[in-house]
Amino acid sequence: MLTTSTRLGRVIAPLALAGVLVLAACSSSPSATWNGRGTSGSTAGNGPRITSPANGATDVPAGMTIAYDHGNATTKVTLTDSAGNTVPGAAGYDASTWVPTKQLAYGTRYTATVESTGSNGKPAKSTTSFTTMAAPQNLVRVQSALGDNVTYGIGMPIVITLGRGVSKADEAKIQKRLTVVSAPQQTGSWYWMSNKEIHYRPKTYWQPGTKLHIAVQTGGVPFGDGYYGKNDLTVDATITTNPLQVTVDDKTHQVTVEQNGKVVKTMPASLGKASTPSSSGAMVIMTRKPKELFDSSLGTGGIPVNSPDGYRELVYYTMRLTWGGQFIHAAPWSVASQGHTDVSHGCTNVSTANAKWLYENSHVGDPVTVKNTPRKLAWGDGWTDWNLSWDAYLKGSAI
């Protein structure tokens, strides 16, 4: 659990802060010298002492961390390449660590200097020089479900996916390379949905108008088994100032839409029939499309189109709620049933006019609560983050 706070463009992470799980001290690597606590330059006056990477280390991962001890409020870290160019960076997740803003170049020599005021009140510094590893062959792409300059709903989780699963031992190391800065500050935490997908959500829904800066500094970071992160990425996004919350009640067969805490629209609906019930739970809109081809034969365990329960239909104003295929969408064929009878394959059917209104006024990330159906939403069937209490969500963090 973390709360955002910036320093040199990064987030500081004393144990409490909303949006950060910043950089970490280094993890294992193929180089024996990388792991050692070698001695470096002067440490006069009990000033800082660089502990990693060791002076003269080679094969250092390009996604590395400068670690030092005896740091204090005056500590300054400088990293330069062999040409004398300064590499930008900032405080890492752990105390007495510093991380470059971007991954370092492969096969390049760098010099790090840590300076501060020693315990005797005099200037003190420590230096170390090291060389990064050659470009590795096995790389893992890291992606975000959020895009730059996009506005999302107040329930939007930050979703980061890895191109390859990692071990439990590597999860903390990778999580520490992920930073969320929210303005205004809000408490939040990461949760490992699987060994290749990690989410972040605030304790309660995002405050309307929140600005988000997401930094994923995984380029060159060891992912285990000889694999390394292929890329860094950053995302700047916004939470809507007009939050929309949707409630779908199978008992009343109604959809209720609230905006800024006030009911602005109600819609008759038809949900999943007895043989294909809808799921109840806390969901968010995952995608929005003006039209989409629904084909029952696609996917695992598909239903042939020519079977009694089969379909192949161009559907309008679709808003996905689950990976399993639960949507809110226009269904002109079931208008006569909407408001009193469930006839769908699991989706929430509304009229074309109502679906169009919801599509035009909603955002990806808007919360949708479905209730009073005979089936509970399966964990992980969609962005199900809001189905856990805050205490339970915290247990999904690797840190």
Report on the architecture of this protein.
By secondary structure, the protein is mainly β. The protein is built from 4 helices and 32 strands. Strands 25-24-23-31-26-32 form a 6-stranded mixed sheet, with no helix packed on it. A 5-stranded mixed sheet has the order 3-16-19-22-14, with no helix packed on it. Strands 4-6-9-8 form a 4-stranded antiparallel sheet, with no helix packed on it. The protein is elongated, with a radius of gyration of 25 Å. 44% of the residues are buried. The model is unreliable at 1-44 (pLDDT under 50).
What's the CATH topology label of the largest domain? L,D-transpeptidase catalytic domain-like
How widely separated are the two ends?
9 Å
The number of distinct helices, counting runs of at least 4 residues, comes to 4
Specify the overall morphology: elongated
- Number of structurally distinct domains: 3
CATH top level assignment of the largest domain:
Mainly Beta
What is the chains' assembly state?
A: single chain
Strand numbers in spatial order across the main sheet: 25-24-23-31-26-32
Tell me the helix content.
under 10%
Kindly estimate the percentage of residues that lie in beta strands according to DSSP: 35-45%
Number of strands: 32
What is the alpha-carbon Rg in Å?
A: 25 Å
Derived from helix and strand composition plus strand pairing, the structural class reads mainly beta
Largest sheet: 6 strands, mixed
- Architecture per CATH nomenclature, i.e. the level-2 architecture of the largest domain: Beta Barrel
CATH H level of the largest domain: which superfamily? L,D-transpeptidase catalytic domain-like
Arithmetic mean of pLDDT:
87
Low-confidence stretches at least 5 residues in length (pLDDT < 50)?
1-44
